[in-house]
Amino acid sequence: MKTLEVVVEAVCISTPATRVAKVPQDEAFLGPHGFVGDRHEAEFLRLRNGQQVPSDRQWSAVSNEEVAELCADIGCEPFALGALGENLRLSGIRLADVPGGAVLGVGSDARLEVAGQNDPCVNAAQELTATYGPAVGQYFVKQAWGRRGVIGRVLAVGVIRCGDVGRLVVGGG
């Protein structure tokens, strides 16, 4: 078992105005199915075939360090907090190396389980292109593989604040 310390650089919530980007908050409540008020807050996801499955996308996080590397590789200015659609912008960790099953404890008793990596998508590329230029539209999806962070499920509710220190536990039982 390995424990890594991370810092919450931003807590972000959706707005009706955008499909991907989220707005940084001082704090947010993590409910049983995601951040309250966020567009991904849900117990179930409806698949294209109409079937409902338990949501493994109740929250998402990206690494400040990986976002900086991604932007440098694309040749654009660093993406603003929330621009990638993340609920949490963390520093002090490489999320590309974090496997499913890892557990992040942060804030007032909140616990989040990592379901897996968050794949890059065309929707994010289109939204980012409007702000950061055509190179993002051209290179984002390919360059962001392994650097779009992680998604997961809520294990325990609580308030998460910008500046909180969290502990990510990888492995173990």
Question: Care to describe what's here?
Answer:
This protein is an alpha+beta fold and 173 residues long. The protein is built from three helices and 13 strands; from the N terminus they run E-E-E-E-E-E-E-H-E-E-E-H-H-E-E-E. It has helices at residues 64-74, 122-132, 134-143; strands spanning 2-14, 22-25, 27-31, 34-35, 44-46, 52-54, 59-63, 88-91, 103-106, 110-117, 150-156, 158-161, 165-170. The chain has a seven-stranded mixed β-barrel. A three-stranded antiparallel beta sheet has the order 4-3-12, with no helix packed on it. Strand 9 and strand 10 form a beta hairpin. The longest helix is centred in the middle third of the chain and has 11 residues, at 64-74. The radius of gyration is 15 Å and the shape is globular. The mean pLDDT is 95.
